[in-house]
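Researcher: Hi, I'm a grad student and pretty new to this. My advisor asked me to get structures for two proteins we've been looking at. I'm not sure of the right format, so I'll just paste the first sequence and hope you can take it from there.
Model: That works fine. Here's the first sequence with its structure tokens right after it:
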Amino acid sequence: MALEARCFSAGDGLFHRRQLRYQLASPHCAWFVAGQFEGAACLLVASNGRKRWGRLYSLAVDPAHRNKGVAKRLLGASFAWLREQGVQAMRAEVKNTNLGARRLYADLGFEEHEELPDYYGPGTSGIKLYRPL
């Protein structure tokens, strides 16, 4: 919760304590943590019966540890784990105004696929991302 509070506000997708507890206990979620909570990534593994995919549900890097490769290490480890699970692609969403995150995702091979109007609340669009594994 402390890392979440340092990284997000309610309008940015901050996990509430109950949501965090649920995600930590879910057999469909995998968590990757860097250092002493310098950063954390939460992935959901889903299937439509034919294909399996991963969804980056949350990526939080402590502001004191940003721009040091923490996010790239977390996502690199998550890509490797997803491939081991037989997952073929990863999906994510990002706030359209978060240019730093959009650059990071582009550098890691994500493609921007679609605008999501009001995804983060009224007047705040998101962008759907996709990356084959």
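Researcher: Oh nice, that was easy. Here's the second one.
Model: And its structure:
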Amino acid sequence: MTQAPRVVDLNADLGESFGAWRLGDDHGLLAVVTSANIACGFHAGDPLTIRRACADAVANGVAIGAQVSYRDLAGFGRREMTVPPAELAAEVLYQIAALDGVARAEGGRVRYVKPHGALYNRAARDPEQAAAIAEAIASYDPRLPLLTLAGSAAAAAAQEAGLTVVAEAFADRAYNDDGSLVKRGQPGAVITDEAQVAARTVAIVTGQGIESAAGGRLRLTARSVCVHGDTPGAVRLATAVRAALERAGVELAPFA
């Protein structure tokens, strides 16, 4: 059995409100997580929301990550798109630079990059789009790690570009037998039971493995674990996950 790592990161998607539309509890989550994937305005987040999320992250000692996305406010970045590589690289670069500017104005900086939603899942299997993301990161700051699924096309492209890759797993999402995420909209794709989410996370981090949606057994590599900020009861779930990891002897700290 793989020994539990001494340190693991707990991340959540934040800054996703837009104008009068409120999504998630950024303030509550920033008291629990160690890294914040902050929206960059392409899938969610208005300038004031993003600025407040950055300021609150800095105040809580939480690492700021740029959560880059397809340009898809209407679909919350969860609709797959085929974007030409040069255009996608430019759009990812734009988002990283914008968020980094806001973060620096609040006394922080972008410390890593994580794709959002459909871009995350597409880049996990599409080498061309994965390479465009890696190109954008490397052109802005090659010291920035990419947070993604271990063994994915995105991880391979980042390594090819000389970037650091940080393996991620999801506390509140179901997995297929091949280690990919069950598509949203399918029954059981999003897990909201507090005890189940906490137990799965400890099993992932300590190398015990978890059950796939089809009943198979998966062992996942994870230096960071995500609780989605828009999952119902996200603060409660993140709090339960953190407590369970600490009881298991795992220290929580940012990876970047």
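Researcher: Is there anything I should tell my advisor about the second?
Model: You could mention this: The domain at 7-252 is CATH 3.20.20.370 (TIM Barrel).
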